[in-house]
C-alpha cells in the first residue's frame, strides 16, 4: 500500500508478465502497469512519489523506471531517512544505497552463514529484522548500520586493467592510492583522512609498490618506466607528503618491484628484478646492506630488527638488519605465495598461498615463529586471503571477494566482520589496525 492508503501495488511473478500493477483502492480500479523484470519485493516512499520494485525505482507520476541499482534485492526493500536512502536484502547481506547518486554505500553481512529470506522494518525506522535460512530472526539497529557506512572517495575513472595499489601513512593522516590503465597512464592520489579531500594528484607511469616513511613525511613509489626503452628502466621516487613534490629519484634497470621503510625511519629496503634486496640509508640513500632473494613483498618487524621478504614461488626469508645476515629461510609453499604480514607483537608471521598436490592447488594460511622460522600452525583449504593481524595479534583478518572475516588464532573459529562493496584490488590498515581501507576495481 502507498503511505496514504490510496493505492495498492502488486508484482507479478517472473514466470508471468513481469509487471508492477498499481490500483486505486477507493475506486477499486486498475490505474497503470510498469514492465519490471523480477519486480518483487515492493516498497513505496514516504511521500508516495516513488515505488521500489526490487532493484528498480519507479516514478509514480511519470510511471517510468528512473533508476536501477546494481545489486538484486530479492528479499525486501525499504526507504530510510526521509527517502534519502534505500536498504535492500540480497542473498547474504543488506545493501545500502544513496538514492540521489545510486551508489552503494555499504553492505552488511549476516552474523552467521545463513542467507536472508525476508526483511521487515519497524515503523520508526529504528530496527530492521531479517529472517534467516536457519530459522532464526536477526535484528539490525539502523543507526549503527548508518555509522558503519564506509567513507568513499574516487581515485578517478575505473582503470581498464593495469596496476592498483594502496598505502596508509603511519600517523594515520594520509592514504595514497595508485591506479593506471593498460596504456600505462597512471597517477597517485593522496587523500587527507581528516577532511577526505585529495591533497595531491601525481602522474606516474607504472607503480608496483607504495610505502610511507616511518615519520609519514615521505611517500615512496617504485616501478618502471616503459617509455625509457626495452630494458624497462626501473625507478624509486620519493615525494614530500606536504607539497607533493618529488625530492629524490633513483633510476636503474631492471624493474623495481617492492619497497618498505623500517619503523625507526633509518633505513628503507628496495627490491629489483635482478633478485637483489638492498637496504639504503633514508638520509644519505647509500646502500648499507644487501642479500640475494626474489622478493615480491617486503615487511619490517615492528622493532625494526628483521626484514621479512616473500617470493611469489613460495619462499620466505628473514634478514637480521643489525647483523647483516639471513636469520632463516623456509619454503613456505611448493606452489606459490600470495600475501604476508608480521604481527604487531613481532612474534609471528602469517603467509597465505597455495600448495600443489598433483594437479590440484590447495590454499592455506600458515603461521611462523618470527625468531626461528618454525611453522607453528596451518589452516588448510581456506577460502579467503590474508589481510593481516589485529592490533593485539590474536585475530587474523582474511578477505575474500566480498567479505572480511576475523579468525581467532586460538580456537580457529572465524566470523564475518563486514561485507565489501565491489571486488578488492588492494588494501591497507590504519596504524592502529582499527580501520581497513580498500581499493575497489570500480
UniProtKB/TrEMBL annotation:
A GO cellular component term found in this entry reads: transcription factor TFIID complex
GO biological process terms held by the UniProt record: transcription initiation at RNA polymerase II promoter
User: Pyrrolo-quinoline quinone repeat domain: from which residue to which, for each copy?
Assistant: 233-373
GO terms, molecular function: RNA polymerase II general transcription initiation factor activity
Question: Transmembrane ranges?
Answer: none
Protein name in UniProt? Pyrrolo-quinoline quinone repeat domain-containing protein
Amino acid at each position: 500500500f502507498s503511505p496514504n492508503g490510496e493505492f495498492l501495488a502488486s508484482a507479478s511473478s517472473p514466470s508471468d508478465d513481469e509487471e508492477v500493477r498499481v490500483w486505486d483502492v477507493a475506486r477499486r480500479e486498475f490505474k497503470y502497469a510498469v514492465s519490471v523484470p523480477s519486480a518483487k519485493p515492493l516498497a513505496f516512499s514516504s511521500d508516495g512519489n516513488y515505488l521500489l520494485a526490487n532493484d528498480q525505482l519507479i516514478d509514480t507520476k511519470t510511471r517510468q523506471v528512473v533508476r536501477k541499482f546494481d545489486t538484486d534485492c530479492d528479499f525486501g526493500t525499504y526507504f530510510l531517512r526521509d527517502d534519502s536512502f534505500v536498504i535492500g536484502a540480497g542473498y547474504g547481506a543488506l545493501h545500502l544505497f544513496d538514492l540521489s547518486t545510486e551508489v552503494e554505500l555499504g553492505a552488511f553481512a549476516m552474523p552467521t552463514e545463513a542467507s536472508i529470506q525476508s526483511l521487515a522494518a519497524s515503523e520508526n525506522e529504528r530496527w530492521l529484522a531479517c529472517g534467516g535460512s536457519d530459522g532464526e530472526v536477526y535484528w539490525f539497529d539502523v543507526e549503527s548500520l548508518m555509522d558503519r557506512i564506509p567513507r568513499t572517495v574516487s581515485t578517478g575513472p575505473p582503470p581498464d586493467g593495469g596496476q592498483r595499489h594502496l598505502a596508509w601513512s603511519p600517523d594515520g593522516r594520509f592514504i595514497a592510492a595508485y591506479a593506471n590503465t593498460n596504456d600505462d597512464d597512471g597517477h597517485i592520489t593522496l587523500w587527507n583522512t581528516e577532511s577526505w579531500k585529495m591533497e595531491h594528484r601525481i602522474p606516474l607511469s607504472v607503480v608496483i609498490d607504495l610505502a610511507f616513511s616511518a615519520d609519514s613525511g615521505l611517500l615512496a613509489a617504485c616501478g618502471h618506466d616503459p617509455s625509457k626503452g626495452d630494458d624497462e628502466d626501473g625507478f624509486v621516487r620519493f615525494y614530500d607528503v606536504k607539497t607533493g613534490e618529488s625530492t629524490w629519484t633513483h633510476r636503474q634497470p631492471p624493474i623495481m618491484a617492492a619497497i618498505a621503510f623500517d619503523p625507526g625511519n633509518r633505513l628503507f629496503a628496495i627490491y629489483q628484478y635482478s633478485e637483489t634486496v638492498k637496504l639504503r640509508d633514508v638520509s644519505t640513500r647509500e646502500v648499507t646492506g644487501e642479500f640475494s632473494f626474489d622478493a615480491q613483498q617486503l615487511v619490517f618487524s615492528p622493532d625494526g630488527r628483521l626484514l621479512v621478504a616473500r617470493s611469489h614461488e613460495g619462499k620466505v626469508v628473514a634478514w637480521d638488519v643489525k647483523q647483516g645476515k639471513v636469520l632463516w629461510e623456509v619454503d613456505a609453499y611448493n606452489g606459490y605465495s600470495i600475501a604476508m604480514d608480521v604481527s604487531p607483537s613481532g612474534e609471528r608471521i602469517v603467509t597465505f598461498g597455495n600448495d600443489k598436490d598433483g594437479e590440484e592447488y590447495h590454499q592455506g594460511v600458515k603461521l611462523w615463529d618470527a625468531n626461528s622460522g618454525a611453522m607453528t600452525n596451518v589452516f588448510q583449504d581456506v577460502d579467503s586471503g590474508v589481510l593481516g593481524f589485529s592490533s593485539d595479534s590474536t585475530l587474523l583478518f582474511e578477505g575474500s571477494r566480498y567479505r572480511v572475516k576475523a579468525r581467532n588464532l586460538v580456537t580457529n573459529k572465524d566470523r564475518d566482520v563486514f561485507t565489501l562493496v565491489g571486488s578488492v584490488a588492494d588494501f591497507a590498515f590504519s596504524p592502529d589496525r582499527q580501520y581497513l581501507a580498500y581499493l575497489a576495481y570500480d
